[in-house]
From TrEMBL:
Organism superkingdom: Bacteria
InterPro entries: Transposase_17, Transposase_17_sf
Domain Transposase IS200-like: 11-126
Lineage: Bacteria, Pseudomonadati, Bacteroidota, Flavobacteriia, Flavobacteriales
Protein name: Transposase
Length: 187
């Protein structure tokens, strides 16, 4: 029998990497409007419960970097409502039934500020990592929200000050991206 990994407890004021994928690797976003709807539901069900530092929506999985603003029960309920409402709409749209996401969303508590910075970069570089797409122009990650001055739910100022300034924020992403390019060239 496989032992079940105990789910990390979500604690208020701590940072987490939240991610999940479609059950059996199934597609959870068929198109851009699915992704926009997911983001809309995310905003609706987690408002005042979490702060978002980064996100990326890929076709069969997503990543979020968050900090809890509320107690665990409220936050897990918010996520549960988000996933249920999204799955319902998605299933109806493509005429499918049953679970869409793997049973429990994965959560990893971030140990320190350095890990937080590395994770924000990792999440933004996901399109590069999976599909060799240019992460800077990928529409469904929070990277572009950092370059823009449009209103956003992302914790823009706090994150940028974590990196010192916007210039260094971009520099760190490019550095990591160049490193990935080198690794891929060797394969």
């Amino acid at each position: 029998m496989r032992s079940h990994m105990k789910l990390e407890v979500l604690e208020k004021d701590y940072y987490y990497h939240i991610y999940n994928r479609g059950i059996n690797g199934t597609t959870i976003f068929e198109n851009d409007s699915n992704k926009l709807y997911f983001l809309k539901q995310l905003a609706k069900y987690t408002e005042n419960k979490i702060s978002i530092f980064a996100y990326c929506l890929m076709n069969n999985h997503f990543h979020l970097v968050i900090r809890l603003k509320a107690e665990e029960k409220e936050v897990t309920q918010g996520f549960s409502n988000l996933f249920n409402s999204y799955a319902k709409a998605f299933n109806k749209q493509i005429n499918r039934t049953g679970s869409l996401f793997e049973k429990h969303f994965k959560r990893i508590k971030l140990k320190d500020e350095n890990y937080l910075k590395q994770l924000i970069i990792y999440v933004h570089l996901n399109p590069k990592h999976h599909f060799d797409l240019d992460f800077k122009n990928f529409k469904f990650s929070s990277f572009q929200a950092y370059l823009s001055d449009k209103e956003t739910r992302i914790e823009r100022d706090e994150t940028i000050s974590l990196f010192g300034d916007l210039e260094n924020f971009i520099f760190c992403h490019n550095q990591k991206n160049n490193l990935l390019n080198e690794i891929y060239t060797f394969e």
